[in-house]
Amino acid sequence: MNNICCNNKIEMKEDLINNAKENLLKKAKASNSKADLARISKAVDMSVKAHEGQCRANGEPYVMHPIAVAEILTELKIDSTSIITALLHDTLEDTKVTIKDIEKEFGTEVAKLVDGVTKLAKIEYQPEHVKQAENFRKLLLAISEDIRVLLVKLADRLHNMRTIKYIKSAEKRLKITHETMEIYSPLAERIGIHKFKNELQDLAFAELHPEIRKSIMSRLEFLRKEGISLVETIVNEIDATLKEEGIKAEVTGREKTSCSIWRKMERKNVAFEQLADIIAFRILVNTVQEAYQALGAIHAKYHMIPGGFKDFISTPKNNGYQSLHTLVMGPEQRCIEIQIRTFDMHEVAELGVAAHWAYKQNHAVSTEGTQFRWIRELLEILDNASSAEEFLENTKLEMYYDQVFCFTPKGELIALPKGATPVDFAFSLHSDIGLSCIGARINGRIVPLKTQLENGDQVEILRSKTPMPSPAWEKFVVTGKARAEIRKYVRSKQHEEYVNLGRAMLTKTFQQAERTYHEKQLSSILEEFKKESVVDLLGSIGEGVVNRIDVLKAMYPEQKIDKRFKNPFSLLKFKSKKSPAIESKSLPISGLIPGMAIHFAGCCHPLPGDRIVGIVNTGKGITIHTADCEMLENFSGTPERWIDVSWEGTGSEQYVGRIKVTLSNESGSLANITQQIAASGANISNIKVAGRSLDFFELFLDIEVKGVHQLTDLITSLRALDCVHSVDRYKA
């Protein structure tokens, strides 16, 4: 009896698989007349044999999953190579099949694609979020070589989401769902496959917010029952309007997904009943000219809602999407959304990148086109990120976006995320432009760099000859590329300073030990300190991670460490002194408001000769800042408080400038710099020790000078002293 039952189960499984195989072959043939059914059939057989004995969470034979993924791809009218890849995408990880086996049976192209899509091996001893970031990094690299890797991966994720209810672990379901919502749904939108994007988003929404989705679906069901005749009425009236103008068109009504409805309710902060476009209407025509004629007919018939028109035909989205969108007060006095596009545009809107198969001629899709610019930008972020988590964070910034369209002075159209600033604009043009950005003009007017761009803005980037990005930019940029580039530059400059300081510290240490310092000799001890290069070792010394005495001992084990290596300096106290308000008439500054008190900002210490800006503080007078002071960003939202001011001369007054000095820890060093300051005719008003080591200490000095030229000359003379490692003007 048991044998009979077992035989029946085996026969049932075989029938299930055979039926699935036949359905796949039919769909492949229907979607692509050139489909290689023999190779597809061969791939099914190989997958069946490889996954023999394996079952999914719902009890089905595992091979039903790759067959289902292949079926989903046939909806895109995809090539046979991609379908074969889908059928074999789990064999490398879950079975004994090797990459050589696949290459032998189906060729190098299929083997390479399967290798790219294969589920990624687990990364041991890493937190879960690091695993996700690392897996996405590898996926991106695979996508950059052939976009079909992403198509198969999206179909794989779509089928997994359709069957997610069979996974018993709530934690695992939640992880998969979040990943779908945060990564795979935006990726589907990026390549324009809205049918995948909408279903992935809605399936994830159902898992994350089941009660909310249930409520929305019940309301939609009520609308369907009540509004069937209304939808037909509106479709018929729009169709009649177009026929009166001699326009042949296909008019349909469609219901939006529960997730998109919920997001719009949240974004607009309105109730379900207040939404105007729960059901959107679509007009399909043959030519672009007919699309604009149809728009004219609709606007002539119905009142357009202000701010409700978008032209994505003349300015397509990055993923190639083209359509006219308009909100009108339509039939039955209903506010409705109408989309107008050609049949070709509709195919692109539904199938995205799959509508333009470059590899129908047997070669992979190139990622050089404008619609794949985002992939190249993500690769740049990958190069600049210091960790997998940082990469994933910046990637998500790139994935979620409502676009604004801006123009360069030459008329080039640049699409950016909503909320983007001139700094984001600069980095989108080129990394070098972003790094050298010092200002921007929007529509001919100079604006703060944190100004948010709007549709139609013409943006001109003002540049310096050398890179000088501000770390403060990271607080307001919205693109992942800009943030990654800023972080990379800040890290490199910081490391450069650490290397220079480490080199100076080590040179001094060797001198104290009466040893000759040869940088090349440090290569012999790199392994001991687990460093890859001498530069890394010097940077670690400057940062304080590696003790320079330990380096000396490693080089010269017999070296004795005595009191010469001890620090004789004690901490100097810093006394803050606020400058009193000064009457404006006593200052050599033009553009001031008569009778108002003037303060010099303590953050940047402006001096005669600096470019300056005045900020009006109610009840306190005017505060003078240098034009490049980072604190000015805080007043970008109140331009009425800004006044144009400038120096008329230096006069006889003394002004306070602040410098930062890195000084050797040796007898007479402090005396040398104070003598030099006195000799230059300047005076020290405040002093603070900011940091110290056995060989160096950092000083902040407030210096009374007549202007920026005197301070610049003083800095130059201090740099000439042997005891001074570095000295620069300091602006907090």
Give an overview of the whole structure.
The protein is α+β, with helices and mostly antiparallel strands. The protein is 46% helix and 16% strand. The chain has 24 helices and 22 strands. Strands 1, 2, 3, 4, 5 and 6 form a 6-stranded mixed β-sheet that branches. Strands 12-14-16-15-17 form a 5-stranded mixed β-sheet, with no helix packed on it. Strands 20-21-19-22 form a 4-stranded antiparallel β-sheet. Helix 20 packs across helix 22.
Summarize the structure.
The protein is an alpha+beta fold and 732 residues long. The strands form six sheets. Strands 1, 2, 3, 4, 5 and 6 form a six-stranded mixed β-sheet that branches.
Q: In terms of topology, how is this protein built?
A:
Layout lengths: L1 H30 L5 H14 L13 H11 L5 H9 L2 H4 L4 H8 L1 H10 L10 H18 L2 H15 L7 H21 L3 H15 L1 H35 L5 E6 L2 H11 L10 E7 L2 H14 L1 E2 L5 E2 L12 E6 L5 E8 H9 L21 H12 L3 H12 L3 E5 L5 E5 L4 H8 L1 H5 L1 E6 L2 E3 L11 E5 L16 H33 L21 H10 L4 H8 L26 E2 L5 E2 L6 E4 L11 E6 L3 E6 L15 E3 L1 E2 L7 E10 L4 H11 L3 E10 L3 E10 L2 H12 L4 E6 L3
Parallel strand pairs: 2-6, 14-16
Antiparallel strand pairs: 1-2, 3-5, 4-5, 5-6, 7-8, 9-10, 9-11, 12-14, 13-18, 15-16, 15-17, 19-21, 19-22, 20-21
Helix pairs in contact: 1-2, 1-3, 2-4, 3-4, 3-9, 4-7, 4-9, 6-7, 7-9, 8-16, 8-17, 9-10, 9-11, 10-11, 11-12, 12-13, 16-17, 16-20, 17-20, 20-21, 20-22
**Structural shape:** flat
Quaternary: single chain
Overall average residue pLDDT: 77
Measured between the Cα atoms of the first and last residue, the distance is 86 Å
User: How much beta, percentage-wise?
Assistant: 15-25%
Class by SSE composition:
alpha+beta
Major sheet attributes:
6 strands, mixed
What is the helix fraction of residues, given as a range? 40-55%
Which ranges are low-confidence, i.e. pLDDT below 50, for 5 or more consecutive residues? Answer: 1-8, 119-127, 357-371, 393-400, 566-585
Number of strands: 22
Question: How many helix segments?
Answer: 24
Supply Rg.
34 Å
